[in-house]
Automatic annotation (TrEMBL):
KW RNA-binding (keyword) present: no
Classification via CDD domains: Aldo_ket_red_shaker-like
Family: Belongs to the shaker potassium channel beta subunit family.
Superkingdom field: Bacteria
GO MF assignments: oxidoreductase activity
A GO-annotated cellular component: cytosol
Alphabetically ordered keywords of this record: NADP, Oxidoreductase
Gene3D superfamilies noted in UniProt: NADP-dependent oxidoreductase domain (3.20.20.100)
NADP-dependent oxidoreductase domain sequence ranges: 15-315
UniProt organism field: Actinoplanes teichomyceticus
UniProt key word Transferase: no
Name the UniProt record assigns to this protein: Aryl-alcohol dehydrogenase-like predicted oxidoreductase
Amino acid sequence: MNHRRLGRSGLSISEITYGNWLTHGELVGRDSALACIRAALDAGISTFDTADVYALGAAEEVLGEALRPVRRSSVEIATKVCLPTGDGPNDRGLSRKHIMESCHASLRRLGTDYVDLYQAHRFDERTPLDETLIAFDDLVRQGKVLYLGVSEWTAPQIRAALDLAEDMGLRSRIVANQPQYNMLWRVIEPEVLPLCRSAGIGQVVFQPLAQGVLTGKYLPGRPPPEGSRASSAGRAPRFIRRVLGDQLLERIQQLRPLADEAGLSMAQLAIAWTLQQDGVDSAIIGATRPEQVTENTAAAGVRLSGDLIVKIDAVLGDLVDRDPAKTAQMMAVKPAWSREQA
């Protein structure tokens, strides 16, 4: 497993990050979740990503339990704050109250004194930005947070935070951004990526497999295979089924010969492509079985040829979405490959 510096910070993270969104505490039982995390550690992954909202805290608890036997300084733990964790008016957002209370709750669930990376899960229009930045800065000064990041912020929102932190003389700054990014969903390329590269902010991207669509397991004209996320209970089908359509799935199958040419599985091809994009420091993978972790981590260190990348772009063509207005919308709007176009 290779490691890369996170943006211009001094923090090294593994090329592949293990994340537990929509899995631990929701789709995957405790024993399977623990086995997946052990497989990640065995594969050399040192960076683990979660959030307070994932399974309403259960995902953090499972991660904390799995990492308890591991020397704390040998891993990097990232979590997030902003999305609703309860029904109260202060159980969401980026107010000082919610940030402080959520951070302390996350530390308890994770069983640690500090997190390496604390991320604003979304931008909060209702809270003054200076209040949010001061609260984060205080957590850094207290030693409960080492580095700061954001997730699914637009370029103007990131720019505003950088400028305000400088104007206020805050010592801590944003060093990481966690956007959705893959072969199909490239909405960060026009605005977010250029800004982050110039500001020294690294990308730790999620959904490199586009909800599993880029693995090729979903076939045109056929129902989702048994055991896949699209066929399961919970929230996963809602996220996946809205982007499944025969037009997309037929194009995905055209990537299979390219994966064969590179000696990779479809999943490995998608992850390797993501890791090769300028500005991306790590790609987050999830898993429901340990063997998925083993397969996906084999993409670390793989270098795709320029010709192969050109061929991938030619196959996907007009299905690639690069609209910067869709940043932070998590494909809630109609993507270029939506079912309506199938």
